[in-house]
Here is the input.
Amino acid sequence: MGTTTTMRFRNYEIKPDPSGLPMLAAICVSGDESECGAVSDEQVDSEKVGCWIAQHLQDTGHNRYQRRYADYVTAELGEWL
Ligand SMILES: [Zn+2]
Here is the structure.
């Protein structure tokens, strides 16, 4: 196969971190030539992101958004494979 290097990997475990609250934000991706790019504050409450979208829609008529979800995990290394 011509492989000259050996990659070694370890097992790992990734778990949700209960001490970090998941965050949600919305970014406006409306626009013909370039995206608007307006971004909401990060919110724990998806309802508040919905309100921001409704307000931005009312102000600008923009109607396409990307919602970004961020959560926290903890990671641990285990055995070498
Ligand atoms: Zn916009």
